[in-house]
Design goal:
The complex is a heterodimer of chains A (243) and B (462). With 243 residues, chain A is mostly helical. Among the domains of chain A are: 79 residues, no CATH class; 77 residues, 30s Ribosomal Protein S18. Chain A contains twelve helices and no strands. In chain A, helix 1 packs antiparallel against helix 2, helix 2 packs across helix 4 and helix 3 runs antiparallel to helix 4. Chain A is elongated. Chain B folds into four domains: 105 residues, no CATH class; 93 residues, no CATH class; 105 residues, no CATH class; 39 residues, no CATH class. Chain B has 462 residues and is of the alpha+beta class. Chain B is extended, with a radius of gyration of 32 Å. The chains are: A mainly alpha (243), B alpha+beta (462). The interface between A and B is large, with 38 and 50 residues.
Amino acid sequence: MSCRQWLSSALRQCQSGLAHQQPRTFSTSTAVAKEYRGRNILPDRPPGSGSGPASRARSRARSGNINEALQVMVADGLERGGQLSAEEEQQVMVDSQRGLGQHLKDLRNHATTDNYLRQMPRRWRTGDVYAPRDLSPTEMSKWRQGRRPLKDVIDVFGFNPLDNYKNFSLISEFMTPMGRIKHSAETGLRPVNQRKMAKAIRRAIGMGLHPSVHRHPEVLRMARHSMPVSSIPQSSDSSQSRL
Amino acid sequence: MATRSVSPGGALLRASRMFSLPDPIPAPPDDGSAGNFFSNTATLAFPTHQVITTLTSARKQGDWGLKRPLPLKSTTKSSNPMIRVKAIDTIEQVTDFTSATDHGMTLRKFQELGIPITMRRQGTDSSTSSIGLPEKSVFENEYDFTDIHPDKRAEALDKRWKFTGPWLAGMSQGEFNEWLAREVRPKRPQFREFLKKKIASETHGTLARAALDKGESAPPPIDPSSVTDDQLIDYVRKLRHNNQALYDMVGQFLDLAPLKPPTTAQLGLPSQNTSNLEYREVSNPYAEHGPPITHPSAGISYLRSSMYMENHPIYGPQKQHSAVMARIVRPRRQAQALPAKLGLAGFIVDTPLGDTAANSKSAAKDIYDKIDPTVVGGAKVWVQPQKARVDSKGRVILSVGEASTEAALVAQELIGNATCLGAPRGENELSRRGTTAGSLRARYRAAGAPPMSSAQDYGLRP
């Protein structure tokens, strides 16, 4: 239980401070007193009940006599460091169970939402018109698979691929991860531009500007940057070396 | 103007669907923002074909006014008969038609909202800075005109929405290159003639001013053909060093849609490179995001103002227009930074801006965050439709605000889901009193009044 741990550490700190009787401990004790004030040790106790030792310590700390507050706190900590009463234990158990239940429920909701969203891959844009049919599984499944682009991107952007043989991110776009040139059925380029693009790729590989077996290391690095940290394989991962 | 007399057969033929159906308009332009993920059967952002319907009795016989009756099996089940005809006749001798309920019902639902189409406010690029500001209707006489004399087109540049030339900021580099080669280059001789006319009028203007200063009569106008080639070359050289004047000339000649010059920050160039460029202030509302491809209202709403009050039969005039239910089409995904999308009257809209429930992260409003399969019909929220505009690609951009609690409650009461002010529902009161015809008659008879006239009195029943 974190509350007890915190109290015991605070107690150790205060005891050492009191034992050495150094003026330097004032700084620590102020911070402790402040934290003590800010933090509610018993969350289920109403703040109005001012007869407890905690409130006594608080009022004393507020009055400025820090040493006195500290002593009260130490005494309080000593007396609270013992066994929890039966009703306190019950409260703690209920609290933790409720928190766990809520957390599990959230997780379950999240998983359900993710599962449903996986079946709704369409990225809606503002101004789209939808009919009930557009929300149906048949229609939604069409948004899942990528298709060849409708337009020739090189014509749209109006550049010459042969001038861009040094542009490794462009070259990587038109290559498979295994280093093969993508077919025009995949790239959607018209024959003239497909030939130019293929020539630019061959040129880049021939000049040693682009690897011929996989993506460019800079492209891999950028892809790694956009990935969530947890999905990046660690170099010391044993499951990787087992392959 | 006298109408041309048409023979009865000709009039019938003209009024027939075969001849009165308009040609389909081009499909919405694909801007490629959806990437390679698209569906070719999805509902388009605007209809391309005319939607036609027919009367119930005619529909039972398959009569839609087309060349041949349509099959009853596929056309008589719908309660909202709407079809679009792709081809009146095909080589297989069938009429090619599909259901048009998607766009037809969307139009009906939109018109039920009762909001006018407005113009974008000029100078407000971000949508957050102009949340509550009033906007102008697209039907304002000041802005809504297309009949302009060709010589006056330049003067109306700040108000017009229709231009024969393209909007350069919306073209990609490849499109621009092609346009230059195909449209602009063949027009060089005409542009020289245009410049000569300008030189002639400018020199005449200076001569006339000088003559006026001296108290002499104005000189005769200069013939553009008398302008020499040397004068033209000098003028072109001068123009090349004045970017704004050059753009004005080119823009007038090609009737280009106005452009909003980018700010220095948007250019991303060092300021010494751009400091010698001069721009004139452009106040056309379509300069920043492009002129519309149709009339700016797109014909979906002819309302001019939303400044009217709705009246409730019991509670009187309402402060807000009636709230509407919007479907949460896609919940918010914070991991992918995707905002929630709402569906209102068949249009996808953004969630309300500002400090609203849709933008808070509290657990109480996680309706925007999750899909709850136990909710029948999907999650819905009450919103207040605020304004609508048609963007340069012909899409309807609705904006909604959060519905106030009172407006939502009143709207809920109208559909019978809630009660306001603890008042009993109207139909409950009726049923409790039990005022049927039979009970009335019984009370009348019990009072000993003379017998009421009935079917028997009139000899209709033995």
